[in-house]
């Protein structure tokens, strides 16, 4: 597959764009990364994703595919060579999709709520919700991985990508809030998983540095404060 047949429209800080990058790397697909500034949104983005107007967008032979987890599934189906991303069994696929939906609909919004929380009580409640979610994900990891390194077994799979794409922002949140959400006491399996995931060849060259993400988050926060003060 020629590189110019596959393009990924995204931005380096986006955890959802990272999911698509990792999936492409798992499948050893060459692609062109098109950096989206979002200010203003490019004509290509608006044309490719007119419904949500969001990144990532995968362009395969000029056909757009939108939404990060849909993109991951598409990549798995479109490129049969290389390791499978989704589990082979229908039940296992359903379980992986269930937890991926939980991460996007419940857990990640709660994590964003930690930094946005006003006052100690609100922050404490948000931290508690995220920590509780990680305990649930720890239990899921133990059951799904069956003692292996990843949710996907011996190699990175669908649920690894779903959670792992958010790992950089989890570390940023820990630093900003002065807390340790992933820890050896309550989530020992996920602690080891996170280290192995970040070091994997499909991940290590595209995972943004925590310090760089932290600086970006401060920049965005300052812009939001300035806009609110006008």
Short description:
The chain has 230 residues and is an alpha+beta fold. It is 57% helix and 7% strand.
Topology:
Blueprint: E1 6-10, H1 15-26, E2 32-35, H2 43-48, E3 57-60, E4 63-66, H3 68-78, H4 90-116, H5 120-145, H6 158-164, H7 167-177, H8 188-199, H9 210-229
Parallel strand pairs: 1-2
Antiparallel strand pairs: 1-3, 3-4
Helix pairs in contact: 1-3, 1-6, 4-5, 4-6, 4-7, 7-9
SSE-based structural type = alpha+beta
Shape: globular
The biggest sheet, with number of strands, parallel, antiparallel or mixed sense and barrel status, is: 4 strands, mixed
Instruction: Report the helical percentage.
Output: 55-70%
Number of helices: 9
Radius of gyration over alpha carbons? Answer: 18 Å
Order of helices and strands: EHEHEEHHHHHHH
Strand content: 5-15%
Mean pLDDT over the full residue set: 94
Strand order of the largest sheet: 2-1-3-4
Distance from first to last alpha carbon? 50 Å
Spans where pLDDT lies below 50 across 5 or more residues: none
**Number of β-strand runs:** 4
Keywords:
57% helix; 4-stranded mixed sheet; 9 helices; alpha+beta; 230 residues
Describe what you observe in this structure.
This protein has 230 residues and is an alpha+beta fold. The chain has nine helices and four strands; from the N terminus they run βαβαββααααααα. It has helices spanning 15-26, 43-48, 68-78, 90-116, 120-145, 158-164, 167-177, 188-199, 210-229, and strands spanning 6-10, 32-35, 57-60, 63-66. A four-stranded mixed beta sheet has the order 2-1-3-4, covered by helices on one side. α1 links the parallel β1 (6-10) and β2 (32-35). The radius of gyration is 18 Å and the shape is globular.
């Amino acid at each position: 597959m020629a590189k110019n047949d596959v393009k990924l429209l995204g931005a380096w800080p986006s955890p959802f764009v990272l999911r698509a990058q990792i999936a492409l790397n798992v499948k050893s697909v060459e692609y062109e990364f098109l950096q989206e500034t979002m200010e203003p949104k490019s004509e290509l983005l608006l044309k490719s994703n007119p419904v949500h107007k969001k990144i990532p967008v995968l362009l395969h032979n000029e056909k757009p595919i939108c939404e990060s987890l849909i993109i991951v599934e598409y990549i798995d189906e479109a490129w049969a060579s290389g390791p499978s991303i989704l589990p082979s069994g229908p039940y296992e696929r359903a379980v992986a999709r269930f937890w991926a939906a939980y991460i996007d609909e419940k857990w990640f919004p709660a994590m964003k709520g930690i930094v946005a929380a006003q006052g100690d009580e609100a922050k404490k409640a948000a931290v508690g919700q995220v920590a509780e979610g990680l305990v649930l994900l720890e239990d899921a990891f133990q059951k799904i991985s069956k003692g292996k390194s990843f949710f996907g077994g011996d190699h990175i799979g669908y649920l690894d990508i779903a959670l792992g794409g958010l790992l950089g922002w989890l570390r940023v949140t820990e630093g900003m809030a002065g807390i340790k959400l992933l820890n050896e006491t309550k989530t020992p399996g996920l602690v080891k998983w996170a280290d192995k995931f970040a070091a994997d060849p499909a991940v290590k060259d595209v995972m943004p540095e925590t310090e760089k993400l932290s600086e970006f988050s401060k920049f965005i926060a300052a812009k939001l404060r300035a806009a609110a003060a006008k």
